[in-house]
Amino acid sequence: MVKLVLLRHGQSAANFSNTYTGWSDVPLTPEGLAQAHAAGRMLAATGIAFGHVHTSLLQRAIMTAYVVQDEVGQNWLPITKSWRLNERHYGALRGLNKDTTRALFGQAQVALWRRSYTAHPPLLGTPSRSRRYHAFPASIVPRGESLADASARLMPYWADELAPRLRKGENQLVVAHGSTLRALIKALEAIPDAAIDGVEVANAQPLVYTLDNQLHIRDKQRLSGQ
């Protein structure tokens, strides 16, 4: 048996202001930093020895991963940062307050954009491309993504980086974002497209999966300090 731990970053500045973020790079709030420390202490109590840490190219996830590594006493572990683990890109909604978009477009439309598997947000005319993506083809930076799009760019990372390490019996820690973790959970648990809208991933609450050698789920636990 092997452990796969999925962890959404602590509260970010955009979570606090209730705005769409996606690939925008925003920091953790002081509360988010405290949540990261608490998540790390919860994981430390499990005694899981990780083989590798995976995170996105966005600081809210990276800083959460660093804090957790320190709390579990495993900050020497190798860490891979990949754009494939970035949050879903919210296109032209990026930076807008979620309540404002409900007033502008209607609650039903916003719910469709946010929770549907295949619905796209309004797309950007020209995507911005920060220095962190200059090593990659310009085509990796989207104008906006559905959850299905985010899943399509995430699953090669599962196949190439996560699954092989898990099959070798190495426990893995993934620190990422709400939507990309929803996409990974959908694949792991074989959740139908129509049912994914009911899946929530809370900030800084570790999900601990126990997998067999075929990577089938044998146990799932959500750690909470409550």
Mean pLDDT: 94
CATH topology-level name: Rossmann fold
CATH architecture: 3-Layer(aba) Sandwich
Spatial shape: globular
The number of helical segments is 7
| Spatial strand sequence of the major β-sheet | 3-2-4-1-5-6
Q: Into how many domains do the coordinates divide?
A: 1
The counted number of beta strands is 6
CATH level-4 homologous superfamily: Phosphoglycerate mutase-like
- Distance between the first and last residues' Cα: 28 Å
Beta percentage is 5-15%
Main beta sheet strand tally, sense and closure: 6 strands, mixed
Secondary-structure element series: EHHEHEHHHEHEE
* CATH class descriptor name: Alpha Beta
Helix content: 25-40%
Structure summarized in a few sentences:
This protein is an alpha/beta fold and 226 residues long. It has helices spanning 13-17, 30-46, 59-71, 98-105, 107-115, 147-167, 178-189, and strands at 2-8, 52-55, 79-81, 172-176, 207-211, 217-222.
Q: What would the keywords be for this entry?
A:
single chain; 226 residues; alpha/beta; Rossmann fold; 6 strands
List the helices and strands and how they pair.
Layout: E1 2-8, H1 13-17, H2 30-46, E2 52-55, H3 59-71, E3 79-81, H4 98-105, H5 107-115, H6 147-167, E4 172-176, H7 178-189, E5 207-211, E6 217-222
Parallel strand pairs: 1-4, 2-3, 2-4
Antiparallel strand pairs: 1-5, 5-6
How does this model look, in words?
It contains seven helices and six strands. The model has no long low-confidence stretch (mean pLDDT 94). Helix 3 links the parallel strand 2 and strand 3. The radius of gyration is 17 Å and the shape is globular. The protein has a six-stranded mixed sheet with strand order 3-2-4-1-5-6. It is α/β, with parallel strands linked by helices and 226 residues long. The chain has one domain: Phosphoglycerate mutase-like (Rossmann fold, 3-Layer(aba) Sandwich).
